[in-house]
Amino acid sequence: MSQSQSDVVMIKAIEDGVNVIGLTRGSDTRFHHSEKLDKGEVMIAQFTEHTSAIKVRGKAKIITSFGETESDYKK
Q1: Residue 73's pLDDT is what?
Q2: Higher pLDDT among residues 37 and 33, named by residue
Q3: C-alpha dihedral, 10 to 12 to 16 to 22, nearest 10°
Q4: Average pLDDT across the chain, whole number
Q5: What are the C-alpha distances in Å from 32 to residues 27, 35, 37, 53, 54?
Q6: Which of 27, 29, 34 is nearest to 11 (CA)?
Q7: Each residue of 66-75: pLDDT tens digit?
Q8: How far is CA 31 from CA 10, 15, 26, 54, 68, in A?
Q9: d(C-alpha 33, C-alpha 69), whole Å
C-alpha cells in the first residue's frame, strides 16, 4: 500500500443530503464519483491515482491530517 495516512479524509454529515463528489486527475477535471450522506453518516475517502480533489456540498465536518473544518454551504 503506497498511500500515506495523510491522503485520507473523513467527512461526517451534520445534516441530511450532504453530497461528497470525487474529481479526477489529468488535463480535464471531471466528476467521477458521488455519494449522498444523511445526518450522522461518516465517509472515509482517500486520494488515489484517479482522485485529485473531493468536493463537499452541505453541512459537514471534514477531518484530515491537516486538521478539522466544517463546510458552510447554505441552501
Answers
A1: 67
A2: 37
A3: -10
A4: 85
A5: 14, 11, 17, 10, 10
A6: 34
A7: 899 999 866 6
A8: 19, 23, 12, 9, 24
A9: 22
Contact assessment for residue 17 and residue 63, using Cβ atoms and an 8 Å cutoff: no
Nearest CA-CA partner of 52 in 12, 7, 18:
7
DSSP letter, residue 39: T
- Entry pTM: 0.79
The amino acid sitting at 10 is M
Residue 12's pLDDT is what? 97
Question: How big is the chain by its Cα radius of gyration, in Å?
Answer: 12
Among positive and negative, which fits the CA dihedral 59, 61, 65, 66? positive
Q: Which residue has the cell 491522503?
A: 7
Mean pLDDT of 29-57: 88
